[in-house]
Write a structure and sequence with these properties.
The chain has 234 residues and is α/β, with parallel strands linked by helices. The protein contains eight helices and ten strands. Helix 2 (21-33) links the parallel strand 1 (13-17) and strand 2 (38-42). The radius of gyration is 18 Å and the shape is globular.
Length: 234
């Protein structure tokens, strides 16, 4: 399979969105050192929308917590087709895995990767290559994203509510669990996937895609188990 974006990395146009000037400069320096030459910067999601509507962008790198418009809402706008770019735009969320309440929403928005702070150059290039290699055809229509909640305060409240009474050890799988490396697209989860603190990442009945399997591997450090109940077990 050909991946034209990977074959022309030097020509890749990256939109970097972060309101923290130090973090933005740090990541920009890493990208330049890695050989990327076309980097456009924005300080928040609202400014990023204006750039997207007037420029060709190949990859979005965005922080989550920003004024005016947070990174999740920016990604939702992209996925809904409300910007000048394809709703298939490869997108990576810059985050800290200590903020677990936002991860499930990012997955629901079909994010193409998480860049955990602090990051190393080798990690950055790996995340970018993985994001660029993901299949566009697995993207859903824009209408599927319209009702996804991206307000950070609401997400924090719902995360606390979901955690009450949740214990991974109390969940009984309806099918024999399989390890993460055996997951395949098309398998259906028979149990919810939650983080160590009980935050919901993927609901019961979710049909796995290649992208969601990649996200499970990326988030392995915050998951209480590396075995998942699926139907059918292939």
């Amino acid at each position: 399979m050909d991946y034209p974006l990977i074959e022309s990395l030097e020509e890749l146009k990256i939109l970097l969105v972060d309101d923290d000037s130090f973090m933005q400069k740090l990541l920009e320096t890493v990208l330049v050192d890695l050989g990327f030459k076309q980097i456009v910067k924005a300080e928040d999601g609202q400014q990023a929308l204006g750039i997207l509507k007037n420029n060709h962008i190949d990859l979005l790198l965005t922080d989550i917590q920003m004024p005016n418009m947070n990174g999740l809402e920016l990604l939702r706008q992209v996925r809904c087709g409300n910007t000048g770019v394809s709703n298939n735009l490869r997108s990576i969320i810059i985050t800290s895995f200590s903020n677990l309440d936002t991860l499930g929403t990012a997955i629901a928005l079909d994010v193409n990767g998480f860049l955990d702070k602090p990051f190393k150059p080798v990690t950055v290039i790996k995340k970018i290559l993985l994001a660029l290699s993901e299949d566009e055809q697995s993207q859903r229509p824009g209408s599927d994203y319209e009702d996804i909640v991206t307000d950070l305060k609401s997400l924090a409240v719902s995360s606390v509510a979901e955690t009450v009474g949740v214990s991974g050890s109390d969940t009984v799988a309806a099918a024999r669990p399989i390890s993460a490396h055996m997951l395949q697209p098309g398998m259906k989860l028979v149990d919810e996937v939650r983080t160590d603190n009980g935050t919901l990442l993927l609901p019961e009945g979710f049909v796995l895609t290649r992208q969601s399997i990649h996200r499970i591997h990326e988030l392995s450090d915050v998951l209480p188990t590396q075995e998942f109940g699926v139907d059918p077990v292939w």
